[in-house]
Amino acid sequence: MALEKLLTYNTQVVAVVDQQWGDTGKGKVVDMFAEWADVVARGTGGSNAGHTLVFDDKEIILHLLNVGAVYDKITILGNGMVINLPALVEEIGGLAEYGINCDKLRISRDAHVVMPYHIGRDQANNQSLKNGGIGSTGRGIGPCYADKIARKGIMIRDLYDRDILHKKIRKGMFLDAATENGLKYVLEGTQLLVRSPSQITREVDVMMAHLEPLGERIKPYVTDTVKELHAHLREGKKILLEGAQGLLLSIEFGTYPYVTSSDPSLNGTAAGVGLSARDVDLALGVVKFPFMTRVGGGPFPTELAGKAGEEYCQEENRAKENELSRYNIKFTKEGDKIKYDFRDQKILELVNSEDELTQAIGIRLAAGEFGASTGRPRRIGWTDAMAARYAQMINGRDVKLILTKADCLAGIEEFKLCCGYAHPSFGMWIEFSRDSNFLRKVEPEYTKFHGYGDLSEVQKFKDLPGSLQSAINLFERYAQGKVVAVSNGPKKEQVIFRR
Ligand code: IMP
């Protein structure tokens, strides 16, 4: 029996969660198990996520839909999600161009709608990263969840009741506005606008007119997904849960306030579709190894070049094209897509630079670490076993780990693994902490390893380069989790399962 089949043997519910700050490549892992599943369900976040699929040699980026749609599986967008309707309609249309009809899509009637004013507020709130801002993706996710918590959010089901929708839009747009002499004062972006009662009615009507056709377009897919998912569970259907973002970005468990607004933990991922984490038979935790990344602001103990690395990524003009041009690396442009050879010798020279800032640029280019949703350069650091241990504690001791992206560093001369922290006031053996101020002060303790070459032809774990195997063994000890597979290339077949 193939090893991946052994993993799912006798399991009905598999969850794939990210044990770091997102972007670990869980899309590929979900893709690996999508054929096994009857149902693929996602329950957190919104179009802040981005997942690149290669279909017929063309790239499709999904932000809301999950890969289940591509495999014609029952595809659930769960109650915990926040849905940008134009983005969803565009994704459905985009897949239709490839002959994928999304007939089995199910959208929770209880999910919340990201309204245009949420996006406006998010972009206005998006304080400059240089001033300590979190650097959100600007997709309206935070303000939408804020309205949900404040009990003035608009749910998918509200789209089909004109009176409720009208009232809720009015509440959402104007509840917090100051009133004087019958006029409302609303903050739009950074501008304070005055609205008369008739203007308010007109604006609500415009918003209604914007939503109505979108609501009609998705109506065939809208249902009580919790009830449906439990029916599938009772019938013995195989269910794959797709986590979004990563544990360290969780509103509950992440490095607050540098977090997203949902809970991408295993518990949050299950709750987001109406399941209990106890329903999950196999939880797979994805870990980028031996480097990891973070986008936006917030502490990152193992970041290459530390503060300078963070500041570099915050500066404007750090797009992929600029980094490539700066080092005279050949690339081609098709529309807004930039193509280059990840294995270009010049990139490898950067990867092996003694200067950490340059090395981070090299690793970013070698592994294509630019945001799928925003194009922002991802911050680069060594894999942090302390952070992984914390993720293992929160997501559960049983989480089995899949390591990704090691192949991108083929040709690296030396790499490091963080196995502890020292703190200037508290000394050694400090554990990972949610406290961002505390975490900013810790100094990582590293174990160094010799580099390795090409991994693409390796078939068995025991044939991986010795230094990589030693690093993985040490990582398992510190992270207190079992590594069951190592991905060795971008394709879903490129994975080495461990006996
Ligand atoms: P928001 O989710 O757009 O509100 O952004 C909050 C923080 O989470 C920012 O630091 C984002 O960069 C980060 N974030 C949100 N979604 C992702 C993701 O899919 N991958 C990595 N980081 C993300």
Features:
499 residues; alpha/beta; Adenylosuccinate Synthetase, Chain A, domain 1; Adenylosuccinate Synthetase, subunit A, domain 2; Adenylosuccinate Synthetase, Chain A, domain 3; 3 domains; three-stranded antiparallel beta sheet; 16 helices; binds inosinic acid
Spatial shape: globular
Name the bound molecules.
Answer: inosinic acid
Structure summary, number of beta strands: 24
- Would you tell me the structural class of the helices and strands? alpha/beta
Mean pLDDT: 92
Radius of gyration: 23 Å
CATH class of the largest domain: Alpha Beta
Beta-strand content bin: 15-25%
Major sheet characteristics: 10 strands, mixed
CATH architecture of the largest domain: Alpha-Beta Complex
Terminal CA distance reads 12 Å
Q: What spatial order of strands do you see in the largest sheet? A: 12-7-5-2-13-1-14-19-23-24
Explain how this protein is built.
- The chain is α/β, with parallel strands linked by helices and 499 residues long.
- It has 16 helices and 24 strands.
- Strands 12-7-5-2-13-1-14-19-23-24 form a ten-stranded mixed β-sheet, with helices on both faces. It has a three-stranded antiparallel β-sheet with strand order 9-10-11.
- α6 crosses α7, α12 crosses α13 and α14 packs across α16.
- Bound molecules: inosinic acid.
- Inosinic acid binds next to α5.
- Inosinic acid (IMP) binds next to α5.
